[in-house]
Amino acid sequence: MAFKDLQDFIASLEKDNELKRIKVEVDSELEITEITDRISKEYGPALLFEKVKGSQFPVLINALGSYERMSKALGAGSLDEIADGIGDFIDMSNYLGLMKKIKSLPKLSRLATVFPIKSPGKGACQEVIDLKPDLNKLPILKCWPGDAGRFITLPLVMTKDPETGIQNTGMYRLQVFDGQTTGMHWHLHKDGREIYEKYRQTGGKMPVSVALGCDPAITYSATAPLPKMIDEMMFAGYLRKMPVKLVKSITNDIYVPASAEFIIEGYVDVNEPLRTEGPFGDHTGYYSLADQYPVFHVTCITHKKKAVYPTTIVGKPPMEDCYMGKATERIFLPLLKMQFPEIIDHHFPLEGVFHNCVIVSIRKRYPGHAKKIMSSLWGFGQMMYTKMIIVVDEQIKPSDVSTVAWKVFNNIDAKRDLVISEGPLDALDHASNLPHLGHRLGIDATKKWPTEGYTREWPEDIQMSEEVKAHVSQRWQEYGLD
């Protein structure tokens, strides 16, 4: 089902006993983080802090902090359920300029409803309009003691390509410098940075609007690794099975989700010198270092009359962002299999924090097949950041990390089965000698064939006979082991 807005999702969480209201006053500087970190490590509920020191707005955090809440947020019983139709959705991109043809094709006619609707007039996100904005009125968190300041951690940063006019939505943290300016954490490899570079060719001010507190499907869509031709708001409509309603920002031409809790409008002056942003306690569990980034100037803040401020914290897993990463893992597996049919399944361990490790099972068909998959994945979109790729045979379930470890520890010859590849790395990677560039490791833990130079007899796994297993299953209760 599609949630009308964030507060509709909050009501649903509360109904299912998945949300805890905190009625005592708390501090947005460090205290909310410490409380939430403890709750996250115990796989606890979403938290709604109703009284935050120095602000009129309540704070929602950990709303997506479990597999169940993440699935619920996307209107599904499980994340794999969403994946079933993702191929049809991506194929739809071929028809973006051919609406009549879409409507004439039975499979695509339902998907045509995902296109966002630009509504005239104002939206609920603009019930209150403040043309003299002050970010200090918002309960923005200082998350960790070593952070450079307060950070907006769950923003949907919306920009428009100056050449195509297509809007882009991404999630980039915003360090608050003062009441009217923040940093704009556009990584080198991100779409937002690419659009920024296009504006630099002509100079001037680049319009930006930031949405806070959308229907969770919209929020998730800002993090999804979509092909460039796919609008994040269209993907959100697909997830919601209902179009996203957009309204024009008050001070620029960016269209924003009408049901958002807050909209922060402004611009980035591309002629302005970059400014030091960070450090920040990041999802790697380490502080990302200070670096130079563009400055976002706030010209207007709009919000609902009774708005809720959404936020998240990141750090050593498990944290809320882990479940957003797992959603991406499951939802986009079919897209990966469309490109590489030999892939059976994959798994991103939470400890790998998105890019640092992926385990892949393949249907091995020829010598060196595992190494081919490693190279292919390193050349596929954001998979280029993956520091370690482990390849196992098709009968191994990648999420069974114990079995994967058993295969890795016992099945590899270091010289033969380890691959070191140099290439791009995530901007948050701190282990490489150079920023953005380093070495990735591939581990081929598949069974080796004679055609791969393995001339010895490969031993079989130890297995109990099916007869004995069936006998024990029948006697299980008698043994008192149930």
List the helices and strands and how they pair.
Elements: H1 6-15, E1 19-22, H2 31-41, E2 46-49, E3 59-61, H3 67-73, H4 79-83, H5 86-91, H6 99-104, H7 106-109, E4 117-118, E5 128-130, E6 151-152, E7 156-160, E8 167-170, E9 174-178, E10 181-183, H8 191-202, E11 205-212, H9 216-221, H10 232-240, E12 245-248, E13 255-257, E14 262-269, E15 275-277, E16 280-281, E17 287-288, E18 291-293, E19 295-303, E20 309-310, H11 320-331, H12 333-339, E21 343-347, E22 358-362, H13 369-378, E23 388-393, H14 401-411, H15 414-417, E24 418-424, E25 437-444, H16 466-475
Parallel strand pairs: 1-2, 3-20, 4-12, 22-23, 23-25
Antiparallel strand pairs: 2-3, 5-19, 6-9, 7-8, 7-11, 9-10, 10-19, 11-14, 12-13, 14-19, 15-18, 16-17, 21-22, 24-25
- Count the DSSP helices: 16
> What is the gyration radius calculated from CA atoms?
24 Å
According to CATH, the fold-level topology of the largest domain is Pnp Oxidase, Chain A
Please tell me the overall pLDDT: 92
Report the principal-axis shape: globular
The CATH class of the largest domain is: Mainly Beta
Q: What's the architecture of the largest domain, going by CATH? A: Roll
The separation of the N and C termini measures 38 Å
Low-confidence stretches: 97-104
Q: Give the strand tally.
A: 25
Question: Biggest sheet, open or closed, and with what strands and sense?
Answer: 9 strands, antiparallel
- What is the domain total for the residues? 2
Going by helix content, strand content and strand pairing, the class is: alpha+beta
Proportion of strand residues: 15-25%
The CATH homologous superfamily of the largest domain is named: Electron Transport, Fmn-binding Protein, Chain A
Q: Classify the helix fraction into a percent range.
A: 25-40%
